[in-house]
Write a structure and sequence with these properties.
- By secondary structure, the chain is of the alpha/beta class.
- The chain has three domains: 6-86, Arc Repressor Mutant, subunit A (Orthogonal Bundle), CATH 1.10.10.10; 91-162 and 275-306, 3-Layer(aba) Sandwich (D-Maltodextrin-Binding Protein, domain 2); 170-270, D-Maltodextrin-Binding Protein, domain 2 (3-Layer(aba) Sandwich), CATH 3.40.190.10.
- It has nine helices and eleven strands.
- The chain has helices spanning 6-18, 21-28, 32-46, 62-87, 102-119, 132-141, 208-221, 234-244, 287-306; strands at residues 51-54, 57-60, 94-100, 123-129, 146-152, 163-178, 199-202, 226-230, 248-251, 262-265, 273-281.
- The radius of gyration is 23 Å and the shape is globular.
- The relative contact order is 0.15.
- Keywords: DNA-binding, Transcription, Transcription regulation.
- Pfam families: HTH_1 (PF00126), LysR_substrate (PF03466).
Length: 307
């Protein structure tokens, strides 16, 4: 009977997800040669070819793909066993690795980490600011335990198999204009249709915020926005409004209070919103992760009350 080494099975699972030895090595902090050596040992242990040449790299054989599927189950079982053992103790302890986009990290994850440190000092919290495209593979592979994602009205995120998806916070999007803009002077909601001739700011093409902005201008204004500036960072978008007179459409959590250079207005034609969601892996959760998730919910409720 083959005795499987969980560390080598993790290398195989990582390769299935990431696709190259170099990517596995970078993710796990090994050299590519060390990863290759460990996978070669795994092949000898199971007595089957797990990889075959594919161009200048390698890919999984049928046997490799089969073992990778079993590796997912075995690694998940080991994680569940660890969670069950942790639950036997009287004190919550362990490590929780969390990730979120900028506004979620600043307003949800960082306050939650502070509250967890006070309530559960034996829990080690690690916060990573990652875009969702980076964070999801890490979550599926177990390198991250919890991810805060966002989705905009009309542009829902995919619900990947094997992950739990829970909405914890909802907020409106608001127009950000220079204070001198003619439509901003009376404090009333501003029509998207009235901003046809303005320059706009969004995040890069293909992102949820970019798709939302273009879709909003099309559906409510009947035009293609003149998008000239692209930035992920809300602070950069706000500075572009101040300095260039361009227009942004941003979530409430990203907006400053009392900035005389900015006019923050509701959208006149319809309510446009964003939701923040917590993603975790299916299966048994360790007590430390359960406590963190509960604290995230509490922090989200506190944010809702403060709006």
């Amino acid at each position: 009977m083959v005795e499987f080494d969980l560390r080598r099975l993790r290398f195989l699972r990582e390769f299935e997800e990431r696709g190259t030895l170099g990517a596995v090595a970078a993710a796990l902090g090994y050299s590519p040669s060390a990863v290759s050596q460990q996978l070669a040992v795994l092949e000898k242990e199971v007595g089957a070819r797990l990889f075959e040449k594919a161009g200048r790299g390698v890919r999984l054989t049928d046997a490799g793909a089969l073992l990778a599927r079993h590796a997912r189950v075995l690694l998940a079982t080991a994680e569940a066993a660890t969670a069950d053992l942790a639950a036997l103790g009287d004190e919550v302890r362990g490590t929780v690795r969390v990730s979120g986009l900028q506004s979620a990290a600043r307003r949800l994850l960082v306050p939650t980490a502070a509250r967890m440190m006070a309530a559960h000092p034996r829990v080690r919290i690690e916060v990573h600011e990652l875009e969702l495209e980076q964070a999801l593979p890490e979550l599926r592979l177990g390198a991250i335990d919890l991810v805060i994602s966002d989705e905009y009205d009309g542009h829902p995120r995919p619900r990947p198999e094997g992950l739990r998806f829970e909405i914890v916070y909802e907020e409106p999007l608001r127009l950000v204009l220079p204070a001198s803009h003619p439509l901003a002077r009376d404090g009333a909601p501003v029509p998207i249709a009235g901003l046809r001739d303005d320059v706009w700011i969004a995040s890069s093409a293909g992102t949820g915020q970019h798709l939302m902005l273009v879709g909003t201008c099309r559906s409510l204004g009947g035009y293609e926005p003149d998008l000239r500036h692209f930035a992920y960072d809300a602070e950069v978008q706000l500075e572009l409004v101040r300095s260039t007179g361009a227009i942004a459409l941003l979530p409430g959590l990203t907006l400053p209070a009392g900035d005389p250079a900015l006019a923050i207005r509701d959208v006149a034609e319809a309510s446009v919103g964003r939701r923040l969601a917590v993603l975790t892996r299916d299966g048994q959760q360790a007590p430390a992760l359960t406590a963190f998730l509960s604290t995230v919910r509490e922090q989200a409720r506190a944010l809702s009350r403060d709006v």
